[in-house]
């Protein structure tokens, strides 16, 4: 009877519930990985690899490298059972300053840049079919993009269950979109349409300085495999669910991506693919004439799924940081009825909207990439350091050493490449990240804020708590 009463008290208490099973977990990974990348990156991979065969090899190797990274995060997620992903792992392995800088960069520009990029792709695919063959108004694209962001924020404020079910639904939609591209291409290949593959490994156009850029484009399309680790405390049986979801989803995505590119090359010549501004739409006009009109809609929904996955996961990093004292306390609070991290979700919205209105789309991904890959490399390096320092610590899942070392080295190589290939946006990214150092020492490490400022912040926090109807967790979930 006492046990039953304790369970009832836990159900009524304010805390994040373990509601994410294996299917929603896999859907979160697939749904965030398969966004706009597979419909944009093929052009960049082919352009920098120089041949059809080598581009397919790049897509395969990018999938393998992403799987290595995802398995590293599976070890981290089962070793450290707190939510927060990158932030938590950096704090546990390398210390509080790198963890705070990751948190600072996520809030200041990584999440706003990535969300703006994906939402602009969503807006473009929704609006442009209505204006073809004319150019769609840029203001209307940005307005529709803002509506997409607003919808996703509202869903994630409303309910964890609704957000999770939305993610599962959109994941099935985007998987259907990829299958719709794969089937006609494979059928044409089976009928003998292989002319684009006969000289697949011509290396005349290959230059070694451009090949890394092909991998850069491919790895961008596979990005998002780390989002599941940000919601560890909401996963049912994480020691089993995290490795299974990561392994199954990344193998599925790799197979789908390679087959999609095979389908592209079966129907289009390399020159036609390079000339296309929207590869999936050009493919549909060639191979899916009867249903080509729905391809832009499916791509838009794919972008919406990636956007939802990002807003479902990233606020948990801010939530975890606030709980550890690295972020204002209000952002570690949960809505008393809906049990969502409402303040953390809402915090990201204004900056995303601002960047959506002011930034150009081609600069957004470059702005975020340097910091994102640098901190991923630090997290996996921290995992290796933690292994050597605490070799007997129980690890429910352990990635082979060669995979961890290979992935870490590739990540640092990508960071170095971005310094060379795009010094302006990389420099901005680095500078914005380093602005967190004085903030950390002034407000976090040893708070030097004047007493009057502290009283003002406490007052604002209390008023926001009342307005948003939020409270601290009442049940420890890790």
Automatic annotation (TrEMBL):
Bilayer topology: Multi-pass membrane protein
Keywords: Membrane, Transmembrane, Transmembrane helix
Domain of life: Eukaryota
Major site of localization recorded for this protein: membrane
Spans through the membrane: 20-40, 52-74, 139-158, 170-190, 210-230, 242-267, 287-307, 340-358, 364-385, 397-420
GO cellular component: membrane
Listed Pfam families: AA_permease_2
Subcellular location: Membrane
InterPro entries: AA/rel_permease1, AminoAcid_Transporter
Xref: Gene3D superfamilies: Amino acid/polyamine transporter I (1.20.1740.10)
Protein name (Swiss-Prot/TrEMBL): Si:ch73-352p4.8
Species for this entry: Hippocampus comes
């Amino acid at each position: 009877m006492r046990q039953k009463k304790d369970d009832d008290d836990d159900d009524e208490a304010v805390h994040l519930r373990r509601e994410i099973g294996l299917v929603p977990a896999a859907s979160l990974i697939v749904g965030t990985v398969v966004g706009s990348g597979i419909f944009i990156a093929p052009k960049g991979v082919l352009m920098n690899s120089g041949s059809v065969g080598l581009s397919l090899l790049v897509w395969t190797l990018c999938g393998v490298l992403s799987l290595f990274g995802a398995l590293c995060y599976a070890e981290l997620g089962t070793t450290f059972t707190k939510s927060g992903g990158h932030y938590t792992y950096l704090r546990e392995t390398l210390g509080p300053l790198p963890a705070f800088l990751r948190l600072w960069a996520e809030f200041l520009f990584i999440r706003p840049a990535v969300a703006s990029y994906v939402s602009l792709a969503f807006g473009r695919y929704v609006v442009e079919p209505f204006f073809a063959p004319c150019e769609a108004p840029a203001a209307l694209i940005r307005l529709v993009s803002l509506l997409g962001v607003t919808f996703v924020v509202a869903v994630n404020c409303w309910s964890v269950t609704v957000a999770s079910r939305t993610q599962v639904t959109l994941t099935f939609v985007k998987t259907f979109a990829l299958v719709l591209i794969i089937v006609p291409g494979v059928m044409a290949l089976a009928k003998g349409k292989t002319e684009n593959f006969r000289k697949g490994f011509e290396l005349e156009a290959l230059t070694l300085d451009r090949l890394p850029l092909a991998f850069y484009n491919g790895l961008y399309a596979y990005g998002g495999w780390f989002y599941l680790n940000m919601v560890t405390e909401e996963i049912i049986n994480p020691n089993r669910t995290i490795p299974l979801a990561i392994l199954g989803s990344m193998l599925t995505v790799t197979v789908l991506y390679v087959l999609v590119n095979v389908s592209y090359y079966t129907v289009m010549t390399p020159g036609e693919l390079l000339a296309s501004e929207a590869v999936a739409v050009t493919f549909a006009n060639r191979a899916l004439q009867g249903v080509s009109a729905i391809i832009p809609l499916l791509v838009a929904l794919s972008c919406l799924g990636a956007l939802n996955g990002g807003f479902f996961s990233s606020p948990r990093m801010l939530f975890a940081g606030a709980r550890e004292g690295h972020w204002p306390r209000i952002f570690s609070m949960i809505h008393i009825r809906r049990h969502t991290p409402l303040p953390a979700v809402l915090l990201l919205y204004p900056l995303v909207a601002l960047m959506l209105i002011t930034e150009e789309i081609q600069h957004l991904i470059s702005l975020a990439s340097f910091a994102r890959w640098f901190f991923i490399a630090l997290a996996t390096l921290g995992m290796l350091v933690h292994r050597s320092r605490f070799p007997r610590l129980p690890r429910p899942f352990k990635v082979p050493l060669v995979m961890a070392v290979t992935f870490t080295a590739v990540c640092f190589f990508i960071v170095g490449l971005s310094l060379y290939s795009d010094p302006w946006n990389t420099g901005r990214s680095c500078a914005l990240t380093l602005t967190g150092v004085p903030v950390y020492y002034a407000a976090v490490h040893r708070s030097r804020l004047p007493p009057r400022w502290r009283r003002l912040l406490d007052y604002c926090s209390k008023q926001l708590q009342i307005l948003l109807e939020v409270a601290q967790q009442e049940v420890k979930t890790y």
